[in-house]
Design goal:
This protein is α+β, with helices and mostly antiparallel strands. Helix content is 59%, strand content 17%. It has a four-stranded antiparallel sheet with strand order 4-5-3-6, covered by helices on one side. It has a two-stranded antiparallel sheet with strand order 1-2.
Length: 242
Amino acid sequence: MEALQNFSPAAMLNSLVSLITAFALGGMIGLERQMRQRTAGLRTNTLVAVGAAIFVSLGSRLFEIHGGNQGAVHVVAYVVSGIGFLGAGAIMKEGANVTGLNTAATLWGSGAVGACAGAGLIGEALLAALFVLASNTLLRPVVNRINRRPVNEETSEATYTVYVICRREAQAGVRSAALELLEAAMYPVRDVHQHSFGQADAEIEATLYATAVVGEELDRVTGQIEGLPGVGQAFWNSSAEE
C-alpha cells in the first residue's frame, strides 16, 4: 500500500516539530488578539497557523516522494484555494459582530487533514487532526476565561462612539462644541452622523479614531458635553469591530 510505503518516522518527527511550533507561535499571536477583544482571537489564529504548517509540510513531503513531478503539489494548491472560498461562505457579519471565523479556520484545518490522508500520509493526517482538535478544545477554556474579563479601555483597540441627544434647534452649536471638547481631550473624531430623535430632539453620533481610551477621561468629556445648553444626554460606548 502507498500509505505504508510513504510512512517515515523522521518525516513524522519533522512534521510534529513544525506543528508544535505553529501551535505555540500562532497561539501567542492569537492570545494577544484575544486579550484585545478582537474578532479573530486565540483559536482562529492558532488554527490558521496550524493549517498553514500542515499544507507546507504536505507540499514538502509530496515533493520528496514524487521528485520533480509537481502535479500533486499543484493539486494541493487548488485544494487550498477551494477551501478558502468555502470558508468565506461560513463567515457572517451583522453590524459590529462577525461570526464564523473559527468555523472557517476549522474547515481549512480539516481540508489539510483530508489532503494529507489523500496523499497517503496517514501519520501526518493523524497529527494534523490532533492539532486541529487541540486548537478547538484545549484553547476553549482559555478563550472563555478571557472573554469573561471586563474590557480594559486603556489597552483595547475597540471602536468608540460618543452619542449626544440635544434639542433640534441647538444641534449645530452642540455639534461644534462637542467636537471641540473631544479634540481638546486628544480624542479626535473620525466621523459624525446626525439624525432626528423623537419629535423635537436630534442625536449626534461621533465616532472616534481608533486609539487607546481611558474610560474616566471619556466620562469626564461626555459629562462636559452633557452640560452644554440644549443637551439632554451624552454617553459613549465601544464595540470590537475591525
